[in-house]
């Protein structure tokens, strides 16, 4: 499968602070990749480096182009939403449609109009007159109407209520995504995008700590709820995290089989959120052990 | 081509006050005041008008009925024509001042407002290079805004002359065509167009520097520019005891003054040609062009590397 995004040994430093540490990525076409990390993990910096918005050391190729040298040409095939509050507030909906149609060679105004027809957004309205939800719908309509091969979303639903967040992701999945298109989403609200993803990347402190397809993820991480009598046995299997649960202690295991754990308590699949917490807390998780 | 036109449209949408609202207000104000002025003249003055259209020695007497200052004053049609021509110059000057003020204002905010409201991220999501963005802003400041104001000034001059012609016909019984023939309408028009081009050439570094500070500033480009100039001036004066910066600025604005003079001398005069050649031959002009190129590079670099506030 052709790689849409390739990054080798990406490093970025702000003064003394190392933001990205030797990041390697290889994202093929047709994937929905969740770039998940806590605040300050380096998600936005990584995306900005991939989009040519900031300069980082290392080799980057997006759609076969170097984003640092060919950003404008690359953006003919790549869309990104930094967050939905970035549309200029002084512009009217009509002007915005005309502007994007004039600038972007792969924008279909007809398609955008079709999306907007299902909303209450008036063409004469200025962006500043729209509610936050409407601005999201408008931005999404613009993006959906661009025939892009890669869509990059950086915390796209930040500040939106649950209804709009759900609508946003539904529209994304139903109206944008197909086998030729790739989506990269960054968020720290893991549970919200879990059902969308084909692949997941966990980033913590500037490093990729997990790079997994969702298919293999499900077989790799297990959750065990153990009673008082089996907790020591569970600990001896080196869980990646242990925490208090209602019916005893909860352990997260990586690379163990269901058969190994079955005898120790109730076994289930670990969710993305649980593994994320386990991976990023690391020492904190260990500290919680035996508490 | 479509994307270039769209970029210019964006500038107009973003700053309608600067592009057409302010000149429209100026147009309405000038025409309104002119109409009032002519109306007052009509009510206060009785004209005894004798026109010989085939003669260069027209006679034209104005007598006031209600004791205005002009009571008994004799005036020739040539005087009136001169007053109309003078009015044209004043209109061009007013629009020139309005243009300068608004263009500086536009340039100061051009590369900072989208960074302040974060819409720069939206614009950066489109296939548009910062070279295109910065050069569009510079072309707008140096050429399009002056052109827009020049067109509005032209429209105002036409309207003003029509009112003057109507006044001459209704009150003085004169043939407006004769008035039109006497005023140097096209000469003034051509002259202001020459002034437009020369001003654009001379003003280029000024707007390029302002744009660079607009790309650099996080809060107030004007404050930053003022602080840098003040710092350099104090540094030069106290440490080196020289005043090259002040001299350079004086020389630069002196050049703008010559551009202004070019716009107000007869088109066929030697003074115009001599001043125009003085400007075109001035090394400062070419140094200014080189500074402009450096500023554009700097502004693009800042927009690429340091756009976030």
UniProtKB/TrEMBL annotation, chain A:
A molecular function GO annotation: ATP binding
Signal peptide, first to last residue: none
Alphabetized InterPro entries for the sequence: AAA+_ATPase (IPR003593), ABC_transporter-like_ATP-bd (IPR003439), ABC_Transporter_VariousFunc (IPR051782), Guanylate_kin-like_dom (IPR008144), P-loop_NTPase (IPR027417)
Domain Guanylate kinase-like: 30-242
Lineage: superkingdom: Bacteria
Domain ABC transporter: 5-230
Keyword Oxidoreductase in annotation: no
Keyword field: ATP-binding, Nucleotide-binding, Transport
Coiled coil: none
Keyword Nucleotide-binding in record: yes
Record's protein name: ABC transporter ATP-binding protein
Species classification: Bacteria, Pseudomonadati, Pseudomonadota, Gammaproteobacteria, Cellvibrionales
From TrEMBL, chain B:
Alphabetical UniProt keywords: Membrane, Transmembrane, Transmembrane helix
Keyword check for Membrane: yes
TM ranges: 18-41, 89-108, 138-163, 183-210, 222-240, 276-302
Record has Transmembrane helix as a keyword: yes
Protein name: ABC transporter permease
Protein's organism: Gilvimarinus gilvus
Organism taxonomic ancestry: Bacteria, Pseudomonadati, Pseudomonadota, Gammaproteobacteria, Cellvibrionales
């Amino acid at each position: 499968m052709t790689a849409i995004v390739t990054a080798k040994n990406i490093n970025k430093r702000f003064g003394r602070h190392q933001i990205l540490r030797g990041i390697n990525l290889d994202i093929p076409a047709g994937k929905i990749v969740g770039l998940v990390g806590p605040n300050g993990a380096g998600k936005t910096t990584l995306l900005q480096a991939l989009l040519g918005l900031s300069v980082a050391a290392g080799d980057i190729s997006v759609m076969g182009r170097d984003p640092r040298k060919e950003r404008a040409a690359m953006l003919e095939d790549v869309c990104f939403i930094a967050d939905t509050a970035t549309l200029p507030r002084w512009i009217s909906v009509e002007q915005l449609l005309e502007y994007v149609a004039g600038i972007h060679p792969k924008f279909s105004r007809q398609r955008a109009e079709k999306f907007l027809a299902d909303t209450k957004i008036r063409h004469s309205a200025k962006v500043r007159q729209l509610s936050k939800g409407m601005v999201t719908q408008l931005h999404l309509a613009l993006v959906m109407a661009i025939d892009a091969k890669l869509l990059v979303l950086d915390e796209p639903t930040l500040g939106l209520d649950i209804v709009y967040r759900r609508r946003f992701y539904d529209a994304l999945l139903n109206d944008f995504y197909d086998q030729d298109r790739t989506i990269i989403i960054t968020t720290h609200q893991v549970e919200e995008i879990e059902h969308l993803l084909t692949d997941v990347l966990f980033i913590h402190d500037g490093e990729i700590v997990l790079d997994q397809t969702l298919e293999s993820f499900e077989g790799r991480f297990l959750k065990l709820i153990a009673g008082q009598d089996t907790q020591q046995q569970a600990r001896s299997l080196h869980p990646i995290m242990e925490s208090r649960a209602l019916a005893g202690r909860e352990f997260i295991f990586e690379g163990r089989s269901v058969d190994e754990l079955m005898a120790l308590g109730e076994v289930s699949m670990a969710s993305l959120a649980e593994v994320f917490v386990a991976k990023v807390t690391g020492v904190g998780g260990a500290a919680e052990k035996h508490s | 081509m479509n994307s270039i036109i769209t970029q210019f449209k964006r500038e107009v949408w973003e700053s309608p006050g600067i592009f057409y609202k302010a000149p429209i207000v100026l147009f309405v104000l000038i025409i309104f005041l002119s109409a009032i002025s002519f109306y007052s003249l009509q009510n206060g003055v009785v004209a005894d008008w004798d026109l010989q259209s085939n003669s260069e020695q027209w006679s034209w007497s104005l007598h006031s009925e209600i004791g205005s200052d002009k009571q008994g004053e004799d005036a020739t049609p040539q005087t009136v024509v001169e007053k109309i021509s003078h009015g044209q110059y004043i209109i061009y000057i007013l629009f020139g001042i309005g243009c300068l003020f608004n263009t500086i204002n536009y340039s100061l905010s051009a590369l900072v407002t989208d960074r302040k409201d974060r819409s720069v991220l939206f614009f950066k999501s489109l296939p548009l290079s910062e070279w295109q963005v910065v050069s569009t802003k510079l072309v707008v400041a140096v050429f399009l805004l002056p052109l827009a104001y020049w067109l509005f000034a032209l429209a105002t001059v036409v309207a003003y002359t029509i009112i003057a012609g109507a006044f001459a016909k209704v009150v003085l019984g004169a043939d407006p065509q004769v008035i039109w023939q006497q005023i140097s309408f096209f000469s003034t028009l051509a002259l202001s167009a020459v002034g437009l081009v020369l001003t654009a050439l001379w003003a280029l570094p000024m707007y390029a520097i302002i744009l660079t500070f607009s790309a650099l500033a996080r809060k107030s480009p004007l404050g930053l520019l003022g602080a840098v100039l003040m710092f350099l001036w104090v540094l030069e004066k106290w440490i080196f005891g020289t005043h090259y910066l002040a001299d350079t600025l004086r020389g630069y604005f002196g050049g703008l003054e010559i551009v202004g003079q070019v716009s107000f001398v007869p088109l066929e005069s030697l003074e115009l040609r001599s001043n125009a050649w003085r400007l075109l031959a001035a090394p400062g002009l070419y140094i200014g062009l080189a500074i402009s190129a450096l500023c554009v590079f700097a502004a693009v670099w800042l927009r690429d590397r340091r756009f976030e506030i």
